[in-house]
Model the fold of this input.
Amino acid sequence: MLNKPLTLLNGTEVAKVHELALSTKISALSTKPHLVIIQVGNNGASAKYIEYKKRFALRVGAIVTHTQYEDNITEDELVKNIKTYSNDKSVNGIIVQLPLPKTIRPWIILDAIDPKKDVDGLTSFNLRHVYENNEILLPATTKGIFTLLSHYNISLDGKNVVVVGRSSLVGKPTALASINRNATVTICHSHTKDLASITETADILIVAVGHPDLIKEEYIKEGAVIVDVGISVGDDNKVTGDVMASSISEKADALSPVPGGVGPMTIVSLFENLLQAYDLQNRK
Ligand code: NAP
Done:
């Protein structure tokens, strides 16, 4: 029997479609959505991601204010500054670029963001709504994964979903939101014994670890859908995911590759959240 060819879940192309829809909606608004990006310190990767967001904003017609603080800023000062933006009616969305310096507790800072402006979906308020299956603003990477799957008519309902990675940023919200979409969910992490014996039960395998080529053929079930979230940048600047694409291509049905999968979906989802936040704030 011939194998079904692998479907590439093309985040770059799907993100373009969503970007166009965003531009059209934003161009019809009398005041443009305004995003504030808070950066603390000088993390090189953060600077790169902020640059991507600024460029995206320019393309879709949103306004970005990028505010950078020294890494010796105190929690109190940072909270005070974020609350000022939270109370500023001209600001529709606020993101705090993570990671923060170790001296600053992220949850204290994130909870200074007005939940209606929390376009990263990481305040306790918005995460509790995911927990309660009453989602408002979903974390951007999680939203991007589901938007991509939905574009290819891949439903989570009744499926066995395995999420590898349990971070607060990606793994846990993605697992919870998968339960909300009626999947049966298993979460794996660095203490999981015999990872392959669990990942090979997945109809949909979502991998968010940051270890190049962690997932190979023997880790997956025949016909599985694989979503690679991992990003590792080599010395040669080559971007690699957590899944060895060449090894799984004959066995999986679909793969969201790195690069060109979840990455572009995350950024477009962030700006979809900005527009949703704008609507929430302007709702009569
Ligand atoms: P993180 O906070 O470092 O979490 C990594 C998770 O992987 C942890 O839960 C860790 O387990 C688990 N892990 C580590 N080694 C493992 C192993 N051998 N087997 C199974 N699990 C293992 O990272 P993150 O913020 O969630 O991000 C994960 C990856 O996604 C990174 O590469 C990041 O760059 C990428 N990312 C991509 C996007 C995008 O838009 N495409 C967005 C965000 C993140 P423990 O909890 O036990 O330590």
User: Anything to note?
Assistant: Residues 32-116 form a domain with the Rossmann fold fold (CATH 3.40.50.10860). The CA atoms of residues 75 and 104 lie 6 Å apart. Residues 262-282 form the longest helix (21 residues). Residues 141, 164-167, 169-171, 188-192, 195, 208-211, 214, 229-232, 262-263, 266 surround NAP (CB under 6 Å).
